[in-house]
């Protein structure tokens, strides 16, 4: 019996030794390797920040169409919502009475033109006749002077003959009377000559001053007045055709055929290409936005699928006195007119460049962007407070660390301060 029990004891002894060896291996936990984290090195450089602002779409311009004519509408060719182009006929006002007035003014102008032509011919005739009269009177004066001279010589001769007793006193008296008559005749023709010259001077010439020229000028002025009145009526007739001054959309129609425009706004048009995105911003946000900056706008109403690029055309001061609400106007091209006034949009505007220590935006430990995790020389992690100075969405400029500092790329990874990490996967 002892010989048979020996193998059994040997088996249990070996089992006990194996069990004891197994229990020895699980006596304490094995050391786990340090977790791997992806890191990057902070560098010094520049980023182009962008401002994300919300706003609404506004038309490029609103145009209120009115008419000063007291004429009824013959036709109205557009409805609200219609797209129109510059120069397109929106409505036509009645012009029957204006056409009649135009014909009357044109007839008056033609009549005054005929009077002008008549005045020119009449003035030319009067001037020519005046010159002829002057020449005639000058010849009469010359002839009267010759007659006086001749009779004066004969009187002197008769007086000499009278002294010698050859003729009678009666003959000398007759000659003296003749000389006096000649003198009177000379005075008369001289007066006629002066009168003719005064008439010629008063008549003047057609290209200068004088009665003839003034008569022509008066007739020409009346002709111009009539032509101006006709032109004024033509302008009114042209205004009777109400046309669109812009390429845009009809947003309000306030006239129907047969109605008079009165003083009201008969059409309201909006130009929507180009179009504005009016973004709201605080004073801190607009401080780094300049006119001409690039901007990208998306509209949630369009599922955010389409982006519209443009430039800042103006940074407007506070909307209401005492408020801190500023406006940034971005000019966008809208050829398909997908953007409509009133739509809510989100805009991203390139701000002034910022220079400093750059880190990935993903390195921040939370959404406040005020801390990053740095890797120490011993491989442990340490959270460091920083201040963000600007970001382009992927890279941020911060203060609080120096260039060359190794930081954890993903700041929201589950690693605590003082915990050692591995830089190798």
Structure explained in plain terms:
With 425 residues, this protein is an alpha+beta fold. Among the domains are: 64 residues, conserved putative lor/sdh protein from methanococcus maripaludis s2 fold; 138 residues, Orthogonal Bundle (Helix Hairpins), CATH 1.10.287.620; 82 residues, Elongation Factor Tu (Ef-tu), domain 3 (Beta Barrel), CATH 2.40.30. 38% of the residues lie in helices and 28% in strands. The protein contains 5 helices and 19 strands. The strands form 5 sheets. The protein has a 6-stranded antiparallel β-barrel. The longest helix has 69 residues. The two termini are 64 Å apart.
Radius of gyration: 56 Å
The proportion of residues forming helix, as a percent range, comes to 25-40%
Q: Give the CATH superfamily of the domain at 98-235.
A: Helix Hairpins
Could you tell me the strand content as a percent range?
25-35%
Note the total helix count.
5
Task: Using the coordinates above, name the CATH class of the domain at 98-235.
Answer: Mainly Alpha
Helix/strand order: HEEEEEEHHHEEEHEEEEEEEEEE
The unreliable regions are 1-16, 18-27
Q: How many beta-strand segments? A: 19
CATH architecture annotation name of the domain at 98-235: Orthogonal Bundle
**Can you give the mean pLDDT?**
86
> Which structural class best describes the helix and strand composition?
alpha+beta
Major sheet summary line: 6 strands, antiparallel, barrel
The strands making up the biggest β-sheet line up spatially as: 3-9-12-11-10-13
